[in-house]
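Worked example 3 (structure in, sequence out).
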């Protein structure tokens, strides 16, 4: 009996996540309403709170699914044989394509603000590592002098640089790159960043030239 009840609860949770995901994809996070979700999932409004804690937790579950998809897209984009610079470019293109092709779901990853006094769950925070883990390998080849912590921080900086350009372009804010030029401008940015990642010449290197 308990197994049947648990299976029904998991099925309800899945339907609610599916419904919330589709509504966010169509209308964005701002317009998401519990009543619309439960209507689409085919259950009573109160059933939502039997399956998840609240609407914020449901959005976290949707965002977790989106992060997994994005991480897989980045992983699949890594060429089998390539230079570190080519890998960086492939990752950047995959990120741009995912963001442009899934604007509302992608935006939801970074837009959720839990109520005051409540943090995003640790397990979900740890999932964001998927955004930088593919960057670390080519970066380590370009900068073998950096230790693991330094590589992680530098990878986060590289990700933030590309993400910022994509975000400003998509939302057309201030000096955002026109959407039709976005991919080319991100390519130019990554090229410039890759050149800047080369270790600085030491005095000994320069005197040997």
């Amino acid at each position: 009996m308990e197994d049947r009840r648990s299976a029904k609860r998991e099925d309800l949770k899945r339907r609610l996540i599916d419904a919330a995901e589709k509504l966010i994809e169509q209308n964005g996070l701002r317009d998401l309403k519990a009543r619309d979700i439960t209507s689409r999932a085919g259950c009573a409004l109160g059933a939502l709170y039997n399956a998840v804690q609240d609407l914020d937790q449901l959005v976290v579950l949707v965002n977790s699914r989106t992060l997994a998809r994005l991480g897989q897209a980045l992983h699949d984009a890594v060429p089998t044989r390539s230079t570190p610079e080519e890998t960086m470019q492939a990752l950047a293109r995959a990120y741009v394509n995912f963001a442009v092709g899934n604007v509302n779901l992608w935006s939801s990853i970074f837009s959720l603000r839990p109520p005051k006094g409540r943090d995003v769950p640790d397990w979900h925070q740890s999932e964001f590592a998927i955004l930088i883990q593919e960057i670390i390998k080519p970066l380590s080849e370009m900068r073998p002098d950096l230790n693991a912590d330094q590589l992680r921080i530098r990878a986060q900086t590289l990700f933030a640089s590309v993400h910022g350009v994509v975000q400003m372009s998509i939302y057309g804010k201030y000096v955002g790159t026109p959407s039709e030029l976005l991919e080319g401008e991100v390519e130019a940015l990554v090229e410039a960043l890759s050149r800047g990642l080369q270790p600085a010449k030491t005095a000994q290197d320069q005197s040997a030239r």
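Notes: The chain is about 70% helix and 0% strand. The two ends are 79 Å apart (CA to CA).
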